[in-house]
Amino acid sequence: MSAIRLVDTREMEREEWLAHRRCGIGGSDAAAIAGLNPWRSPIQVYMEKAGEIPAEELASEAAYWGTRLEDLVAREFTRRTGIRAHRCNAILQHPDHPFMIANIDRRIVGSDEGPGILECKTASAYARDDWADDRVPPCYLIQVQHYLAVTGYSYGYTAVLLGGREFRYARIDRDEELISHLIEIEEGFWQRVESRNPPPFDGSEASSELLKRMYPEADPELTVDLPAEASLLLTEYEVAKAEEKAAGERAEAAANRIKALMGEASLGHIDDRVVSWKSVASSRFDSKAFQAAHPDLHAQFTRLSSYRRFSISGAKEWR
Description:
- By secondary structure, the protein is α+β, with helices and mostly antiparallel strands.
- The protein has 2 domains: 4-209, Lambda Exonuclease, Chain A (Alpha-Beta Complex), CATH 3.90.320.10; 230-265.
- Helices cover 42% and strands 16% of the residues.
- The protein has 11 helices and 10 strands.
- It has helices spanning 14-21, 27-33, 42-49, 61-68, 70-81, 138-151, 176-195, 205-214, 229-262, 287-293, 295-300; strands at 4-8, 84-86, 90-93, 101-102, 106-109, 116-123, 155-162, 166-173, 267-270, 273-276.
- The protein has a 5-stranded mixed sheet, with helices on both faces. Strands 1-3-4 form a 3-stranded antiparallel sheet, covered by helices on one side.
- Strand 7 (155-162) and strand 8 form a beta hairpin.
């Protein structure tokens, strides 16, 4: 099996490239659909594919530099491993599942094992532990397995530059069981896109940010009658909040009992764990006192911000 070369990207404008991406599920889409992309949610991918919101642009500094440094990471991978990797310059398509597409960073060539995939990444130094001991973050693991599914290749590599000063790479072998599961969930998702049946919003930060972007301002004159399903969702929300409160109280009670055992001690040891209850001094800016003493300066440096507050009146008590 080999992938179909769907379209050449060498002379393609970005807008055209984004339009082609809307016609299928790519590697980063796959991770989001599987719930393993911390920056995108399934509903966001759906709305992009359905044309309801624009496809994501390279908005952040991190994304910008990730693209700019891709060639450097690829060349360093070859320098350290001796494995050659070339640009593919095409959007690829699975021969049996046309909704699966791939825009791989590099194709490994000249190996006795045959062709493979190289994905080039950059990440903050704070992400070092995510890449330790040849580990690969789940979202990138899913991305590579999706590309292996599309291309039919048996292996791939990820290479990452951490904090601009630490280079790591890891091999990823084809996992037929995982690929089978990916194809199943991607097929189900694409059926939703074609039938215009969106997945529900989930509890991820990505979903919350999408809602803020879609509905940034409330209409003070607008009131709606919620559908019947909202009653079940309200109950689910109230029960979850009650459980959260109860869990918080249990955690606080346990912490207080440990503090009582420690007394004036700063550190406590048990088994291989260390408990810290140290005195910490901090200084805080007294905004109210500053406003009273310097009202003009306070007004000069005060900026109005707006957000939407979610609350429920008449909430039930759940115990």
